[in-house]
Amino acid sequence: MKSTNIQDIPLNKQLFGDDFVWGVSTAALQIEGAHDADGKGESVWDVFSTKKGKIFGGHHHHIACDFYNRYEADIDLIKQLNIKAFRFSISWSRLLPDGTGRVNQAGIDYYNRVIDYCLQQGVEPWVTIYHWDLPHALELQGGWTNRAIVDWFTNYTTLCAQSFGDRVKHWMVMNEPTVFTGAGYFFGIHAPGKTGLKNFLPAVHHAVLCMVAGGKTLRKLLPKTTQIGTTFSCSYIEPYSNKPRDVAAAKRVDALLNRLFIEPILGMGYPELSVLKGMEKYILPGDEANLIFDFDFIGVQNYTREIVKYSLFTPYIHAKLVKAEKRNVPTTAMGWEVYPESIYHMLKQFNAYPQIKKIYLTESGSAFPDEVVDGVINDTKRAQYLQDFLQQVARAKSDGYEVSGYFIWTLTDNFEWAEGYNPRFGIIHVDFETQQRTVKASGQWYADFLGD
Ligand code: BGC
After folding, report:
1. Domain residue ranges of the chain, discontinuous segments joined by +
2. Catalytic residue positions, numbered
3. Closest residue CA from atom 9 of ligand 1
4. Whose CA is nearest to atom 12 of ligand 1?
5. Ligand 1, closest atom to CA 175?
6. Does the pTM of the predicted model rise above 0.85?
7. What CATH code is assigned to 6-451?
8. What distance in angstroms lies between residue 363's CA and the mean position of ligand 1's atoms?
9. pLDDT digit string (tens) for 328-367?
10. Which residue ranges have their beta carbon within 6 Å of ligand 1?
11. What single string gives the DSSP state of each residue in 181-240?
């Protein structure tokens, strides 16, 4: 493969080709609000956010960006910014308040309105079935640790396909299983707040079974031309030094963060890691075949890189991340290193799997504190981050790596999970007192870039 000097590429849309998909990504719980409107059931986040000390500043998502009531104006903004694809997720407990059984028609009607309005405006809906908001009723039965979730998830996916499959042509079964199993079932810092390997390991295996069950269900019910994918978070991993134990520690973290979920579905099995030994007891006879699915595309989501050091005292994995703040590098408001090359390396890494047919970058973005001066938000750091990351995507494309689209995270400032409303990721500013939207300089840059 030829290697290109990225300095030589002036960034422009043509570099990516005419078929490249330009989009913006969101998630139901982070934008919709209306947490108990029109028959919606509780999700794990409704319960988790009431627990003391779990969410920054005691924030909650009950109103968020009020997208539930303002979707028309927000989709108008997407159109105005020349963005052609809108990725959003469906709230499971809005359709099925108890997670299974009783259907809430008002929830189905709401997503029908959103999808129809997108199509009327010439914006393509890209739908994620599961972006972390499990119905609380299912969590009461063990949630992701209960193998029955494969049936619950299949029923929910069936309902999504039957309700919206005539108009939605791009589906993503799941958003970032590494994060919701790791943060929600091992570290307990996300809903439902469970901890330890006894929760994490079954959650991992059941999430893989559900990704596959979801993929198969969509393929069975939807037209042949419908594109079915699923998305993965990833960070470019580098060892702290060339010492063999740092190099080995970095490999273990790469396996856990970047390979754990993608490799089984590609037919490669789980990575070999001693921390995963205990998973064997959750793998039942016949499961092997149900871990593999030939997705039409893979969604890759990248924000940063991580530097990894050997650590004797870190249980299970004997490795730790060297925080960006300790490395004297530029960081975002999340404390993540600003490292644009990470997206290039991750595209290269995912391209090395011959089974993957198509890759979309379904999320990438940055949080920085914004200042509103005379009604203007001149977010130069976010605009620069976006351009530098896109430059690296162009570099990957020009080096021959498959990448077919880019979805910026995110449309509006929103509810950033355990961080509440503190980090602002939007290319559109939201005043959470008044719900006023203001396009930031980064949003205007994206619109101009796409409009060229
Ligand atoms: C998630 C989003 C989240 C973003 C920024 C991704 O891991 O899919 O829901 O807001 O990163 O943290």
Report:
1. 6-451
2. 176, 363
3. 27
4. 416
5. 8
6. yes
7. 3.20.20.80
8. 8
9. 999 999 999 999 999 999 999 999 999 999 999 999 999 9
10. 27, 30, 175-176, 179, 233, 301, 363, 409, 416, 425
11. HHHHHTB-SSTT--BSHHHHHHHHHHHHHHHHHHHHHHHHHS-TT-EEEEEEEEEEEEES
